[in-house]
Each structure stands twice: as C-alpha cells, then as structure tokens.
Hints:
Elements: H1 23-28, E1 34-37, H2 41-53, E2 59-62, E3 71-72, E4 75-79, H3 80-86, E5 91-94, H4 101-113, E6 115-117, H5 131-136, H6 138-147, H7 151-166, H8 170-173, H9 179-187, E7 194-198, H10 204-212, E8 219-223, H11 227-239, E9 245-248, E10 251-252, E11 257-262, E12 270-271, E13 276-281, H12 283-287, E14 294-297, H13 303-308, H14 311-317, E15 320-324, H15 331-342, E16 347-352, E17 361-366
Amino acid sequence: MNVTAIPPRGAGLESLITEKKSCWERLAAEQRPIFIYGMGDGAAKIMAVFRKYGIPVAGIFASDAFVRGHSFAGYRVHKLSEVEEMVEDFVIVLAFAAGYPELIDYIHILARKHTLYVPDVPVIGGGLFTYDYCMEHLQELNTVYRSLADDESRRVMLNVIQFKISGCIHYLDAITTPPEQIYKGILHPSRTENFVDLGAYNGDTIRELLEYTHHSYGTIHAVEPDKKNFKKLVGFIEQNDMKRISAFQCAAWCKDTELPFSSKSGRQSVLSPAGETLPARSVDSLLSGAPASFIKMDVEGFEREAIWGSANTIRHFAPKLAVAVYHRNEDIFELPLLIRHLNPKYKLYLRHRLYIPAWETNLYAVP
C-alpha cells in the first residue's frame, strides 16, 4: 500500500497492515554486518532484543562529536567514517531519538547511503510492537481506528503501526504534521484558555500555545516533577512576568499521594522505585472544581493515571486534550478508549509531529 494513501474508514486494520515481518526478524536474517548508531538507554534496549533474536552486533558508532576513544557495552565506539572504511556494505540500526530538522535530515542522508532501521522499543513497559501484537489487540485497534474523526487520523494510525512493525522511517515521513496545522486545524486555542500543562518541562508548550493566542490566556496550571526542569520553568515564568499561572513541582497522577521519582534532568525523568519521594497530584485536585478548557499530558508513560486523575474535569467540562500516545505499546489504543469512556462526546484525532522514532505521536480530543 502507498503510505500516502488515505485508508478507507470502514476497512479493518487486518486488511490494511502490509508489514507483517518485524524489523527484528529482518535483522535476524541479515547477512551483512549490523552496526548500532548511538549509545545510552536506547542502545541498551535494542541490544537486549538483539540477544533475544540472536542478532549479532558488528559494532557501535556515534556522531563525531561524541567519539572520544571510549567504549559502550564492551564495544569500542567508532566514527561513521571509520566504519565505512572498514566495511563496504553494512546495516545501520538507529538507537536514539531525533526531534530537530538538521538531525532528521542527516538520518535521511544515512538512509539513502545504507540500509537503516529504527526499531520500536517502548519508552516504558515491556513487549514489542509486532504484527502478532497487533493481531492480539485487533479489536481495540479497530475500535479506535473506526472512531477517529478524519481520514488523516486514520492514515496516521496506520502508518505509525506500519513503522512500529517495520522500523522503516518513510512511514513517518508521510504523516509528519507541522504544529500550526494542529493548532489552527484541530485545537483552535482561544485567548481565554484555562490551560493545564502536565509535563511542562521548561515551558516549551506554554510558549508554543501563547504564539497562537497572541500571548493571552485565562489561567495556567503547570506541572513538572523534575527539579532542574522545574527551575527552568519558574525562570521562564519570571522572565516573562506571567500572571495567573501556578507552577507545581510534582508528578501528575490519578490521586494525591507521594511517589518515588528518578530525576534525569531531561524530558524522560520517570517514576522509579529507586527514586526520591515526590508529591503526586491529580488534575481534579489541583483545579478544586474550577474548569479547564485545555489539558496537555506528556508524562512519560503515566498518561493513563493522569487521565483518571482528570476524570471529573473531563466529564464535566470536556476540555480539549492533547495526550502523548507513544510511551507504552498499548497507549495508541488504550488511551483513546479511556477518554471516550469518560466522555463519549469527544472527537478524536491523531497526528505525528516531527520526530524519529514515532515519538510525538499525539491524540487530540475535542468536544
């Protein structure tokens, strides 16, 4: 199937998914050397799956600026030029996430020179998103697919599934949507938004929203658990002399409690049994019955708990929702079904913003 085609609404995904062999199976059958591009958590997760499938690692390379004669997981880290001098034909497995145009352009250059896969490993949780996984959850996936509000959402869902199975980036190229199309075409932010930002990071989403509301808003509740990110968030608020904004250093959760939290001083600080204890709050508690008109949730795999913590607000006020659906394998079907359960009036849209792998795939729910 052409990845840019619009799939029919009435069709089931079982007749539309053409990628039935996972990238892991393709890599296991490879005769060429396989080199992992990148280090860190992503590479460690991929190497664990390699061991499961019996996929050999020929070596590891990194961007030139990160190569200092060191090693990772027992492999010397090479420059790409060194690998190209050693081996004429090899396969690249990308082991990190790219979210800005220059790096994504470079990845496309590599993909034109070499066979390149971007395996999908969940940010949090276990298991792999394979064709068999899709068939196991076909009923839920089809329910979401058929309930989506427009053809583009169905095309996004199908291509994300095809990417997750195959690891081929052309599926994402065909569905990347710029933010202005999402704000102007789906969210239509007003100048009186009562905005709740779960996973506020350094204020980047608040800044983005204000670009479309001419820097006007009603109220803002910003939640960020990471200590260093929260400091940046507060600095952003003070620098812009923002009023009617409340910032909370806590985790978003289904109820008010305390949770162990591992700070990584980045976008992926997560709940962890080994972490320090941190307050956790529900949206319903933070708002104390006040209305919200727009809630963003990007909370590193705990969106389900954040949605339950917003249940009363969602039922009574039907705020617009922007929810990350890429952290766990089940997010792409479980979270839309939960939101529709809480408030069946929502129209559901899926969009993928510029990112490799399928991070920044978000669900937009509007009443």
